[in-house]
Write a structure and sequence with these properties.
Non-ribosomal Peptide Synthetase Peptidyl Carrier Protein, Chain A; 58% helix; globular
Length: 83
């Protein structure tokens, strides 16, 4: 499994676990289409940050409105972390 696929699966699993929402695709909009509550979404972000030892910029979080976008951002942070 690639890093991006692993991240996407972690995000999907976290959304299902914390929010009880199963995403139809990695491109499904969290807030408009999946009806994910923005405050509850922060629990998902925190779980990803803990699992991978990364930190998303708070001002960028609204841009990460799909699994694909959040996974890509996490992958970029992991690549930077690894140097």
């Amino acid at each position: 499994m690639t890093q991006l696929a692993d991240l996407s699966q972690t995000i999907r699993d976290s959304i299902k676990r914390y929010l009880g929402v199963e995403l139809a695709s990695d491109d499904q909009h969290f807030f408009a289409e999946a009806m994910v509550d923005s405050l509850a979404f922060l629990n998902v972000v925190a779980a990803i940050e803990r699992k991978y030892g990364i930190k998303f910029a708070n001002d960028a979080l609204p841009d990460y409105n799909t699994c694909a976008r959040l996974a890509a951002a996490a992958s970029e942070l992991l690549d930077r972390k690894r140097g």
